[in-house]
Amino acid sequence: MAAKIKKGDTVIVLTGKDRGQEGQVLKVMPKDDRCIVQGVNRIKRHTRPSQTSAGGIIEREASIHISNVAMKDPKDGKPTRVGFEMRDGKKVRIAKRSGEVIDV
After folding, report:
1. Full-model pTM
2. Do the Cβ atoms of 102 and 72 come closer than 8 Å?
3. Strand, coil or helix: 72
């Protein structure tokens, strides 16, 4: 099945502590149905010093379930679902809200 959300897409968080925030998808994990969104679901990780890093408390993004995010509509900037259509013999992703083509 084709991916509805891909790396580099701008998404809006629908539920959870970061509801309403938007960010760019950094990584998608299709096996786990999860994705990492820039600036969303930040966690603090206590790391021990090693030869390569100084250690300490490192803040980074944790993964979020793919069902808790929605694509940002290219036309009005609101959350939208993603659909697929054949245009000019090519399968493209479209925003269900406005009908705009997401892929270029």
Report:
1. 0.85
2. no
3. strand
